Amino acid sequence: MYEDRIKPRSLWSKVVTPEEAALHIRDGMTVGMSGFTRAGEAKAVPLALAERGRREPLKITLLTGASLGNDLDKTLAEANVLARRLPFQSDPALRKRINAGEVMFVDQHLSETVEMLRSRQLGPVDVAIVEAVMIKEDGSIVPTTSVGNSATFAMLAEKVIVEINLTLSPVMEGLHDIYIPTRRPFRGPIPITRPDDRVGVPSIAIDPSRIAAIVITAKEDSCAAIQPPDAETKLIAGHLTEFLTNEVRRGRLGSSLAPLQAGIGSIANAVLHGFLDTDFHDLTMYSEVLQDSTFDLFDAGKMVFASGSSITLSPERHDQVLHDIGRYKSRLVLRPQEISNHPEVIRRLGLIAINTALEADIYGNVNSTHVAGSQMMNGIGGSGDFARNAYLSVFVTKSTAKGGAISSIVPFATHVDHCEHDVDLIVTEQGLADLRGLAPRERAAVVIDTCVHPEYRDLLRDYYRDAERTVGGQTPHRLDRAFALHLAYQTHGDMRRAAEVPEAAAE
Amino acid sequence: MYEDRIKPRSLWSKVVTPEEAALHIRDGMTVGMSGFTRAGEAKAVPLALAERGRREPLKITLLTGASLGNDLDKTLAEANVLARRLPFQSDPALRKRINAGEVMFVDQHLSETVEMLRSRQLGPVDVAIVEAVMIKEDGSIVPTTSVGNSATFAMLAEKVIVEINLTLSPVMEGLHDIYIPTRRPFRGPIPITRPDDRVGVPSIAIDPSRIAAIVITAKEDSCAAIQPPDAETKLIAGHLTEFLTNEVRRGRLGSSLAPLQAGIGSIANAVLHGFLDTDFHDLTMYSEVLQDSTFDLFDAGKMVFASGSSITLSPERHDQVLHDIGRYKSRLVLRPQEISNHPEVIRRLGLIAINTALEADIYGNVNSTHVAGSQMMNGIGGSGDFARNAYLSVFVTKSTAKGGAISSIVPFATHVDHCEHDVDLIVTEQGLADLRGLAPRERAAVVIDTCVHPEYRDLLRDYYRDAERTVGGQTPHRLDRAFALHLAYQTHGDMRRAAEVPEAAAE
Ligand SMILES: CC(C)(COP(=O)(O)OP(=O)(O)OC[C@H]1O[C@@H](n2cnc3c(N)ncnc32)[C@H](O)[C@@H]1OP(=O)(O)O)[C@@H](O)C(=O)NCCC(=O)NCCS
Ligand SMILES: CC(C)(COP(=O)(O)OP(=O)(O)OC[C@H]1O[C@@H](n2cnc3c(N)ncnc32)[C@H](O)[C@@H]1OP(=O)(O)O)[C@@H](O)C(=O)NCCC(=O)NCCS
């Protein structure tokens, strides 16, 4: 049964149990695992590792592409195996340990981790664990539903463990495009000039002698945990598609727009879903994770090509797409996240980038990561890679959270992942703020008028007017009241009670 | 006298007075002017414009490369000519009007302004005013001591006014490399792979029929207003060169390091000056403004090539370099700021980027622009272009300002231009914090131990410990005390009195 999955016969002897493979990983090591937005993670060895972690002292630094599926981050965290974790995660159990200071989480721009590894500013990587559909004659590895950082992990690691996943069809060969920038100072341009350019090779080339173990698995990716579009996300999608329709009318964009990027999560998926109800056509994506909406747009004949680093689908879509992958293959490419998120390519192609904010301030600075400035949600992910270099950088969010007790638009963002310079549009179900070419005072007026929930409009208008009158400046702020809404939520469970929070200034 | 400066005889009739040329500019227009870090600005027409502004209603949107010399921003601001100003300035009189809300200042990443103009997200540009050493036979324009955004302004504007500056030698021809990225979606890679690559043409090609007026001037650039290195900036330079020496020793860098970028201002200049006292050799720069330190490194035989967008020198250096420009020409290139600051090239070359912070917080988020969160100093300039994509992103600052009454390291930055992900090292005269690969809690410990002035160390340590204990999280913050130092400065004129500031929370 290995013949068609492990072509080099010399490697058959490397097939071992997950437990045996996990023995290559020792206390204190740095391990690079495949897996990006719950797609394509190694499924068996990490569990064996967790099992060992429950019995013996075993702490590792875990690098991945992005988040892992199948509750692996939870399992590893609960087994106390994780000393350090980078560059992204989205698991509630791990998040809890990170916020308790038990796991050191190094949140990074997703395009940058491998730059730091290659230049030895991070690392070295001791062991790489990569999920694959097959190992080819030349020993090269064909990844599965994500590429993430797997190629660089496999190239840099001292030892490589390959997990062959039998649930995935060998037809996936050819889906991936592995391109690694050459070493500085001899690095040349990345030759991608269109989303559908293939510039690399279809598998991860490594010296087969570094393959230390091979494990056979038959477990599927977990499905996406996203919510279907609701009334509010539909409104957000509507505002954005209306805006884009106007841009087309003004001649700033053609009716195929520009290559689209859409962030992780329910809102971004819902917004992309909204493109189904438009006249745009021949759309393309140059994105990170491809969610249901991408395939809905393919099936509706609206999308012609999508480039990403992973495919993460709902239960409804999962089997259909993966069993039918041959049908989509010519319209898809999966790239290393360094390339899907590369500033060079993003800037060149001129993307429309749609990412989600946890909160934005009235001037358009965006917090995508930290609840109340301290508690990590998931991580910055690729949002910075895309927002900084996009042709049009859009942030979407519902105007309130927690049943209205939190306004997503606040006077002062409690953490800034994306500064005002990187935010062109903010869209909530209330409306769309077009901030291009505006100064901060103008931005505040537009954001408050269009994006804020009516229940918070007076509160924010009062803050702005007071700051403008008493402090002034390019970006008027009252430092003694900047966090009054957040403090009201902390104290009273409701930001609407901000007026009850005393000022901080000593008078 | 025009023969060698205005080669096309057909253009001689366009030579007019500054006042006549200024008549092309009417109320409400958008004007793009040459000028970058006080170098190469048009010197006569803006003054005529200001003169008219004092007599008649005249408000314009002024776009430049960056800051203007010869007090032009002051003169235009005081004549009330400026309705809007972008993307950078550094003039105290204009700053005052910006902070009073009288001039709308759109602070932008310096590489991005022309992207927005070309895609018509900003603009259109009615008139461009460009300083030149000559107009060539083909009507193309040879710029002077800066390129900035001049090429794109001249290409996009309906009318072009050229100021021929007779104080500058025609020998400057060949110093510039004008490259404009092709239009999306047909854009190709920018083919620069080394700081000394020339990829464009030496002059700005425009249809001569769009040259509406030519003005002859004989005024020099103003000199740089920077302070010479002092005891503290020498310590900062020492910490950084020691760190880099160790990186070389560890094999992470060669003894020519990587191409250097150094920001504007006294501190960055002093730091670069510190490279004179090292064993590094064959240094190169891929930077924005080239200051005295670049030429000192040339003369000392330490630097082999420097790429920038402008040359701004002290009174001592100014005449020598400009009169001797032929001697330096083969080791210099001036590029459009879009290219000197382009994320694509910065990332490819892997720069060591050295920029200055106004303040940094204990987690390494940097404020380069807003005093106390509200008052604009200069603007983000190119610091974001460089910091985000550098191989090594360094921020330097003295640990205190205003005689010790302000700590430059604070609990929470009052404005975030550079998020923690874009800041690898923070260096003050106290020491150097190497933040690479650290989680926020670890970053705080290192920053407090190494960078903070001893008078503030306990204050910051207390803040951090209290936040960690009472709030926790990935990035522990007490929102009720986050700005206590700033409020103490506002109330008592001294951040050291932060303990006297009551908390903001409603208990
Ligand atoms: C920001 C982000 C968390 C939003 O996720 P989402 O699923 O689309 O958005 P939701 O509105 O469902 O919010 C998720 C949770 O945050 C909560 N939330 C939203 N805004 C909040 C706020 N201002 N304050 C506190 N909590 C908030 C929601 O209530 C919800 O909580 P729950 O899980 O307990 O129900 C997510 O997009 C993210 O992690 N982004 C950063 C990484 C990134 O952008 N990558 C993009 C490149 S792929
Ligand atoms: C940050 C910046 C203002 C520092 O300039 P500098 O001349 O090197 O630094 P200085 O320490 O002399 O500070 C300049 C002024 O800010 C004041 N200052 C410094 N830190 C301060 C702080 N934390 N709070 C308030 N004021 C502060 C200084 O006291 C000084 O004031 P003065 O002019 O009244 O004497 C300048 O580098 C800048 O504008 N940077 C943003 C743009 C940029 O980085 N471009 C780089 C790419 S070219």
Automatic annotation (TrEMBL), chains A, B:
It comes from the Bacteria. Residues 324-463 form the Acetyl-CoA hydrolase/transferase C-terminal domain. InterPro entries: AcetylCoA_hyd_C, AcetylCoA_hyd_C_sf, ActCoA_hydro, ActCoA_hydro_N, NagB/RpiA_transferase-like, Succinate_CoA_transferase. Pfam families: AcetylCoA_hyd_C (PF13336), AcetylCoA_hydro (PF02550). Gene3D superfamilies: 4-hydroxybutyrate coenzyme like domains, Acetyl-CoA hydrolase/transferase C-terminal domain, Glutaconate Coenzyme A-transferase. Keywords: Transferase. The keyword RNA-binding does not apply. Residues 14-215 form the Acetyl-CoA hydrolase/transferase N-terminal domain. GO terms for molecular function: acetate CoA-transferase activity; acetyl-CoA hydrolase activity. CoA binds at residues 378, 382, 402. The keyword Cell membrane does not apply. GO terms for biological process: acetate metabolic process; acetyl-CoA metabolic process. The active site is at 288 (5-glutamyl coenzyme a thioester intermediate). NCBIfam families: YgfH_subfam. Belongs to the acetyl-CoA hydrolase/transferase family. This is Succinyl-CoA:acetate CoA-transferase.
